[in-house]
Amino acid sequence: MSANQAAESLLASNQQKKLENLPKDYPLSTSEDEGDNDGERKHQKLLESVSSLNGKDRQKLAERSEASLKVSEFSVSSEGSGEKLVLSDLLEPVKTSSSLAAVKKQLNRVKSKKTVELPLHREEIERIHREVAFNKSSQILSKWDPVVLKNRQAEQLVFPLSKPQSAFAPIEHVVSGWKAGTPLEHEIFNLLHKNKQPVTDPLLTPVEKASLKAMSLEEVKMRRAELQRARALQSYYEARARREKRIKSKKYHRILKKGKAKQALKDFEKLQKVNPAAALEELEKLDKARMMERMSLKHQNSGKWAKSKAIMAKYDLEARQAMQEQLARNKELTQKVQAASESEEEEEGQEEEEELLVPDMVNGVQINGLNPWMFRNHFIDAKEAEVQKDLKDPTEPEAQEPSESEEERAGEEETLLKEFEERRSLRQKSELNHMAEPVHRPVTKDPSSQEVLSELRALSQKLIAENHQSGKQELSSARTAQREEPAREEEEPMLLQRPERARTLDELEELGREGCVENKELPRTAVEGLQLEKNLSNHIGAPKEKKRKEQMIDLQNLLTTKSPSVKSLAVPTTVQELEDEGERDQRQMIKEAFAGDDVIRDFLKEKREAVEASKPKDLDLTLPGWGEWGGMGLKPSAKKRCRFLIKAPEGPPRKDKNLPNMIINEKRNIHVAAHQVQVLPHPFTHHQQFERTIQTPIGSTWNTQRAFQKLTMPKVVTKPGHIIKPIKAEDVGYRSSSRSDLSVIQRNPKRLSIRHKKHLENNCVD
Amino acid sequence: METVPKPDSNVPPKKDRLQAKKKKPRRYWEQETTGTAAGASPGPPRKRKRNRELRPQKPKKNDTSGKFRISKKPRELKSPGPQRSLSGAQDPFAGPAPVSVEVVQKYCRIDKSKELPHPRTKTRSRLVAAEAQEEETSVRAARSELLLAEEPGFLEGEDGEDTAKIRQADIVEAVDIASAAKHFDLNLRQFGPYRLNYSRTGRHLTFGGRRGHVAALDWVTKKLMCEINVMEAVRDVRFLHSEALLAVAQNRWLHIYDNQGIELHCVRRCDRVTRLEFLPFHFLLATASETGFLTYLDVSVGKIVAALNARAGRLSVMTQNPYNAVIHLGHSNGTVSLWSPAMKEPLAKILCHRGGVRAVAIDATGTHMATSGLDHQLKLFDMRGMFQPLSTRTLPQGAGHLAFSQRGLLAAGMGDVVNIWAGQGKASPPSLEQPYLTHRLSGHVHGLQFCPYEDVLGVGHSGGITSMLVPGAAEPNFDGLESNPYRSRKQRQEWEVKALLEKVPAELICLDPRALAEVDVISLEQAKKERAERLGYDPDARAPFQPKPKQKGRGSTASLVKRKRKVMDQEHRDKVRQSLEQQPQKQEKAKPTGARPSALDRFMR
After folding, report:
1. In this predicted structure, what is the pLDDT of residue A86?
2. N- to C-terminal Cα distance for chain B?
3. Which residues of chain A fall below pLDDT 70?
4. Which of A191, A453, A566 to mutate to test the interface with B (most CBs of B within 10 A)?
5. What average pLDDT does range B229-245 have in this prediction?
6. Could you report the per-residue pLDDT of B483-496, keeping only the tens digit for each?
7. 3-class secondary structure for B405-417?
8. Is residue B418 a contact partner of residue B448, using CB atoms and an 8 Å limit?
9. Which of A147, A740, B331, B424 has the most beta carbons within 10 angstroms of its beta carbon?
10. Residues of B whose CB is below 8 A from A704
11. What is the C-alpha to C-alpha distance for residues A749 and A763, in angstroms, rounded to an integer?
């Protein structure tokens, strides 16, 4: 039965297979079911036998359609058309249920088998192949990159490539590199080596050197004894240290520590007497320790141990003591070490007393002479506060109690902040030099009073002038002077001094160089210049811009400086006659000096015209009569004109902007531009970089002959009449060509599958 | 010579590396020779070793640059690792000879103080190569200074004696005969005040008297080349590129004679010429005329290159700047204008004096300009950048003529007196404190020129010609290929051909002669803009910053954003900083309008 079942199952599967193969194998099977007659069957058999002749199905027996006597018990297995008998089928108990588990399983297996992947499209295969080939070949070729790079950067290449000429080497080097070749030479060298004779250098033999180095016997003995002693001592010390290290007693360690601290203190005191500098260093160390302590939470009773003790402290006296000890220790460590002398301390104390009157901005700042920042800050604050108090309410008592309430303090701080802001604004507005800056302080606290500001500015100018004249002045005195003197009184001297400042700024260099211009004469000339300037401004009629005026002043200064006359030994004869009549000379001088006034004016006018001409023109797009009435005498409205006026972008500043006596033509020289480089060559991104590479002249006029030859060396040199062969791997030191790597892929390109492709893609990413 | 890379240089072949790994056991007898034995491969290792010694910081530099070494001290000997040789002797002066930094600096052309925009690696390598090249050439040039054997002359007074008191007779007595022969006087009272000119080699002298007397001579041997009377007023004379040709500005036209005195040309397009200047490298003869025209005549082809109207009346003061071949004209309104044939307008105008300008002179390096005006002042201008007077002096009677010597001495002719001022060194301007020399002549000075390569000042005056000795005036060493005083006729012809081949086009004259080594930024920008317009985007624009992905848990989005922001902030900060730098100028402008105008504001600047 079971065999039958198995046969059935096999048959089923076989039929399935057959169904698949049906159209191919049995094209004529349609006639099968109707034909019962013998002839037809025979024909069928014949056909089957014929068809079974072609290989695979040869062993297949004919389908049994009806019961026959010729059923062979061995033919069962061969019924499956190549389907193998599964071992489990054989092992199965014979009498199982007739469930179709095995069949199901097999069916499942059949189903679970994946379908064969479709081969990739030809184009795709080719593409993958190309990619692989490219990657491979580029990898192979990348080996040449350094060679290519080197060749590109080489100053000169000589073709055909030849072995590098052995450089000229002195005979001695050649000899030193020489090796024994012939047997005779070998023998000689062996002899020499055996006897430790020098081979090349006729200096001392090693034996001789060793003998020179050798010491006498006594010396050796002494040395050995010394070494022995040292070694013994070392071992003792090591043993002791190890022993001490092993001691676990806390008490012992505490005592040790205390002893050490005491010792250190003693040492320090001693050091203070002997070597104060070293003591100071020690002190610094202490200071550092203090800092560390302040930073850390070590003795703040905040640790685990401390907390546990805190619980205990209520009941345990010892714990309480321990905690207190800790706190005391913290205090001790964080206490500042007083290194300053007593007098200083006293001063400090006084200051601190003063300080108490004043709200301190910085929390916990200690004033000491070491930190000038802090000190200064405090000092200023104190003074400011005082001034404020004076101004604000005189009724307030002079000395305030140190127990000033917090609110008041806050108020003070606010005022201070306000003041700071004010001062900042002042600083921005005034263009004074920094020297005068910290001195000025708004006397009144009115933030809106512009007058004060202007006054201040004037004063500061005056101050600058004063500084110029009389050098350094005491800051405090300047401050008082400033506060007392009204600005109006300063106007007159200001008028005189102002031009002098301009002069000094302009020609400081010049004066410095000459160094022989009398100080007395300066104001006079300056005043002259001023007057001249006034005259000129009247002449011109409309003194257009201040800039012009400044330029004028500059020019005047430039040209009217009274230059020292040359003392000449040999004075021209005509001049000698002239000198007798000094009066006449002077008159002539003055005449000459003033004759040129219009020269300056003309020059300035010319310059102005040049500037105007070089300015980019605005574009006016107004159409008269568009959108409004037009006609004779009617002009487009200002609004419209303003709207349709396209302002030209402001060009770069003129080169002669700061040169009052100069007009530089800004026109482009097209002839030169035609010869200039107009396109940046490749690796350069900025023209300045390129310019730097072409700045060195290469002509023989500017270089020595050798340098010239080197600079104009051709990049590639070829020998006439020689074949230039392509570069080979052997030429640059590679051993073999790498063609074989490429050929691996090219041999069987069709094997590539998707898996391969993925692998490749990964490679590409890498 | 650099050839194709050798196997041992850059690419490490496996074979060699293997060899290197298998270290040869060292033998005791090799102890002495290890230094040399290391050089088993011939040549290069030794060199490389030295290179490493020289520049320990830059081992990457190519070999050629390593050959040169600059020592900080002028004459400091380096002690390199002694190279043992077979004989045991050592080279006491191993390596190339040291060169002093100052001398090298003199020949450096690249201004390294300028900050370059950050270059890419490729560009950087080019820049480094260029710098190395420059250094090498400048070191070579500095080395060749050894060949300049001659030293300049000098004059020192005995214990504080004023050198100005030393008279020519004293100098002549003190110097050797050959030098004493260089001091002479030509008494030519008949034909009125003389103009004179030395040839570029300093060997020949030509002079022309107001009343028509023109002569040329080899003034060292006193051999007269020609002497003629042109029967016309002579305003100026000048040698052309060589002593064989002579330009004479006569009353009517410009004439050119050869050294035999034969008239070769009469240039009628240059009429009523008052002053002549010859630009030797451009072969241009510049003439300034009474009619106010500045005319450039190319003497190599005989064409007028440019005729420029100065629009400033009669031109009677002219000089050239030897540095950039720009012609300086002095005008009656106190200005000095600078001209080039390429431009119709002056390149620049400098207001120098309140009166008219009487004389202008520029020193050989083109850094200083001396002017004297009708206001009796003598001013010394710095021509680099500021154009401000460095020093000013009022002279008793103003200087009518000025001349600079090759080494920067300034001579001024005032009436019948010549004053000479000297500076401290070659490049320093002459200090006008104390005259270096003074000399009184027999007539009023009319022409003044220092003789090149000789310590001689030639003065043309109404009484003839005086050649006076001025120690330390001239460059002691001449360039034999450029201007050789002792050259033969054949050499001169050779030089002429070479000079003609190297002729500089006239239109290249501009204020900054190094402009040619610059990129034409305007057209560059223009091209860039056009390209961007054509393409629709700017291909050179910098891509926005993209942070690199980071490993190990740092590539979170937050950190990416943070990094991006960091870069953005940095850029923004840079921008703000730049704008702040520009702001002070604006603030200055805005200040007067800011506060309420005060009466005192007019005195502020």
Report:
1. 67
2. 63
3. 1-36, 52, 54-98, 162-178, 198-206, 212, 337-597, 735-766
4. A566
5. 95
6. 999 999 999 999 99
7. CCCCCEEEEECCE
8. yes
9. B331
10. 137, 140-141, 143-144
11. 18
DSSP state of A159: E
B110 touching A, CB under 8 A? yes
Chain A positions touching B510 (Cβ under 8 A) are 669, 672
B5/A176 Cβ within 8 A = no
Record the tokens describing residue A407, joined without a space: 């609110």
pLDDT number for residue A492: 37
pLDDT at A606: 92
d(CA B496, CA B484): 12
DSSP state of B519: B
CA distance B437 to B422: 9
Do β-strands B335-339 and B348-351 pair in parallel, antiparallel, or remain unpaired? antiparallel
| DSSP count for chain B of H helices, then E strands | 10, 30
What is the model's pLDDT at position A90?
A: 66
Distance (Å, whole) CA B316 – CA A531: 34
Q: Are B248 and B230 in contact (CB under 8 A)?
A: yes
Write the DSSP string, A61-91.
PPP--S--TT--TTTTGGGGTTPPPPHHHHH
d(CA A376, CA A382): 10
**ipTM surpassing 0.90, yes or no?**
no
DSSP string, A294-339: HHS-TTTT-SHHHHHHHHHHTT-HHHHHHHHHHHHHHHHHHSPP--
Per-residue pLDDT tens for B440-481?
A: 999 999 999 999 999 999 999 999 999 999 999 999 999 888
Q: Taken in order B50, B55, B60, B66, is the CA torsion positive or negative?
A: negative
C-beta atoms surrounding A347 within 10 Å? 14
Torsion of CA B298, B300, B303, B308, to 10 degrees: 0
Q: In this model, does residue B353 exceed pLDDT 70?
A: yes
pLDDT in tens, A474-486: 444 444 344 444 4
What Rg value do the Cα atoms of chain B yield, rounded? 32
CA A394 to chain CA centroid, nearest Å: 58
CA distance B339 to B307: 11
Alpha-carbon span B412 to B450, nearest angstrom: 11
The C-alpha angle A289, A291, A295, rounded to 5 degrees, equals 115
- CA B527/CA A722 separation, integer angstroms: 45
Q: What is the pLDDT of residue A584?
A: 59
Cross-chain residue pair A150–B417, CB shorter than 8 Å: no
| Conformation bin of residue B141: beta by default, left when phi > 0, alpha when psi is -120 to 50 | alpha
Q: Which residue has the tokens 């913290």?
A: A330
The b/e string for A671-694 (b: 16+ C-beta within 10 A; e otherwise) is: bbeeebbeebeebbbebbbbbbbe
Can you list the alpha helix ranges (DSSP code H) found in B411-556?
A: 489-501, 521-535
CA distances from B81 to A48, A171, A174, B86 (A): 102, 20, 20, 16
pLDDT attached to residue A396: 42
Average pLDDT over every residue of B262-271 = 94
* B104 vs B73 pLDDT, higher one: B104
Tell me which chain B residues have a C-beta less than 8 angstroms from the C-beta of A550: 605
Quote the tokens at residue B373. Answer: 């005006």
The answer to whether A733 contacts B7, with C-beta atoms less than 8 Å apart, is: yes
Of A418 and B143, the one with more pLDDT = B143
Distances (CA, A) of A299 to A294, A304, A327, A328, A330: 10, 11, 6, 9, 5
pLDDT in the model for residue B425:
64
How far is A151 from chain B, CA to nearest CA, in Å?
A: 6
Helices marked H in A247-275 — which ranges? 250-274
Q: B136 or A737: which carries more pLDDT confidence?
A: B136
